[in-house]
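note to self: dont lose this again. the chain is below, predicted strucutre after it. 446 aa total, dont forget to put it in the shared folder this time
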Amino acid sequence: MGIWGDLVQKMAVATLGCKVNYCESEALKELFRQNGYKIVDFGQKADLYIINTCTVTHLSDRKSRQLIRKARRQNPEAIICVTGCYAQVSSEEVLQIEEVDLIVGTHNRQNLPQMVDEARQRHVPVNLVERYPEGDGEVNFEELPVSGQGRTRAFLKIQEGCRQFCSYCIIPYARGPLRSRSVESVLKAVKELAASGFKELVLTGVHLGLYGKDLGGNNSLASLLEQIHRLLEDTGGIERLRLSSLEPADMTPDLIETVVKLEKICAHLHLPLQSGDDEILKKMRRPYDRSWFRALVQHLRQQLPDIALTTDVMVGFPGETEAHFWCSYRFIEEMQFSRIHVFKYSPRRGTPAAKMSGQITPEVKDERSKVLMKLADELSSRYRRRFIGRTLPVLFEGFFAEGWLEGLTEHYLRVRAKAKAELSGKLISTKIYADSDGYLLGRIED
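---
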């Protein structure tokens, strides 16, 4: 395990991609900690390096390869283990990277410490990636240890897999069919995290809104949230529940009602739009159009006027003309998102969009990306400024600079304030007085 000879083994993890990957990386650290390893930063010398990869774009693949080589340079004798989406869909390609010792994909990692021990004995690179079956319910949910960020925010993965098959997306192939963590397991994990002192819990999943569809009965995300909320009202501890990315089409009336009425749920939803043009949305195989999305946003803001709506937007999808782009731009401006992740379309082998005509040049993608990022900055600033002069509960997570703490509001706005160290990890009423370069400045209320 983590003791090799007379020495405690050190391990480090590098993470690329989404919150699900981040959550899994924290869980893997905890798994190896329980097996006797000491966790160190990725920039330090370690005996084991795990690279948790992403494959959403070609750039993600390249960054993964760079991190693999960086790990080998840091310790030529270390075991290099590659996991995540790039490893799952391109395992043979990863196996050709001479620095790699072990490849494990996106599931069956509960026994990874034993796999690492075997790889250390074997001295030959090994590919342990297993392909996913096509049907839902044929793969069990991978239960890794629960873990958190410091002692403030915890992440809990409750769902895995996707069956939406958007025309540009490789993730259904990388993550496999739908599967959900059992309700009993979720509630047990929530109770443990609450007892550990965490103040915020972030629920994550690849297709989070479809939680419970594979469990049968009346299981759903809305039902689970109700049960978590009741548990926390009884046990105390966690004061905020945050939902990670939700597909717009999964925002059912039942789920919206639940989000609105449960006071612990943060007024922040991440709803990936991808494009604001109907023709492009159809080519993307997104299950909504502009008018449907607009109605959803209007309804949410009627219920929660200050809700933070964040999103992902793609530029340069095959066939996207200037007219399509500016149509999308105007719609995004109309929606007034509080934060936008802008990314450039990248063809993924095996997806329908990769074979479409009208592929956009890198130069055009770059230009459109810059235009949208400028709009994104303007919209973010506009949203932040609405809170100047108001008092907000801020969950302070740690030091920004000497004498200053930094934390988050329920709207996912970063706030900095002069404060004493003992306020870190606490939810504190803070008077907002300025907007400064992407974050808010506040004063602690007496």
